[in-house]
Design brief:
Elements lengths: L1 H10 L7 E6 L6 E4 L6 E9 L8 E3 L5 H9 L5 E4 L17 E8 L3 E8 L4 H12 L4 E7 L6 E3 L4 E3 L3 E8 L12 H5 L4 H10 L5 H14 L15 H4 L2
Parallel strand pairs: 4-10, 5-11
Antiparallel strand pairs: 1-8, 2-3, 3-7, 6-7, 8-11, 9-10
């Protein structure tokens, strides 16, 4: 039995070790067009914005994807297109792991990383996603990038600046809102009994890594009892009479 399990594990595809980040396709920065002759749908928008800090406390700097864009333009780099990072769901449904189209353009401009996606025609799964995008049901992009090297990141205290990153794929996603926009119940707040519980709650709403620890440490300074300076005793101006 154990040998069968090992053989089955070896047959599984090796998933890339990448990190995924979402960004809304805002209406003013999104363009959807369907070719009147072929019916092929194309959508363009920003997968990364330079002026935004994501829920993980990261800010991509212009030039972070310069090498990716150059290699993509030269035809030596492929950036895949999936729906909701479906390559991670191969064990649930083979359709989810299928690519939904191809990117025609990946380039940096003054606002961010601009991409243009063409959905695969005559493919049921791709056309299903295309229909949701066209209707506005699905309106997000999400990048999957390899962890940057330490030299390509800089901790600014309030956030981390990423100066260089390599892309694996860019997905169309149906949850474009910030991952930090989650509901916190009163029960979850009342259940906090230690600083570690508070850190876990902050992480659950999108404040990740050491930033949750730093916030708790900072808040704990305010909760410490402040020492009230004791007033100096009033001196008796006639004390010298008692000394006689």
């Amino acid at each position: 039995m154990q040998q069968q399990i090992l053989m089955r594990d070896k047959a599984l595809p090796k998933l890339p070790k990448v990190q995924c980040r979402r960004l809304p396709m805002k209406l003013e920065a999104r363009n959807i067009a369907r070719d009147p002759k072929t019916g092929i749908l194309r959508v363009s928008g920003y997968a990364v914005k330079w002026d935004s800090i994501n829920a993980y406390g990261e800010k991509f700097i212009r030039g972070a994807f310069a090498e990716v864009c150059a290699a993509f333009a030269a035809g030596t780099k492929k950036v895949h297109a999936y729906y909701n990072h479906g390559w991670r769901m191969f064990f649930i449904d083979s359709f989810m792991a299928m690519r939904i189209g191809k990117y025609l353009r990946i380039e940096e401009d003054d606002q961010g990383l601009l991409v243009e996606l063409e959905f695969t025609p005559n493919m049921q799964w791709s056309q299903t996603i295309a229909a949701m995008v066209e209707h506005g049901t699905v309106d997000g992009f999400s990048i999957a990038f390899y962890p940057p090297a330490p030299m390509d990141m800089e901790d600014k205290g309030t956030h981390v600046e990423i100066k260089r990153a390599d892309l694996y794929e860019i997905s169309v996603v149906d949850e474009p809102a910030d991952d930090a926009a989650r509901v916190i119940s009163e029960d979850s707040i009342n259940s906090i009994t230690s600083s570690s519980d508070a850190v876990e709650l902050l992480r659950s709403i999108g404040l990740h890594g050491e930033y949750a620890d730093k916030l708790i440490a900072r808040l704990s300074e305010f909760s410490k009892p402040q020492e009230t300076p004791q007033p100096e005793p009033i001196k008796d101006p006639f004390a010298f009479l008692d000394e006689r």
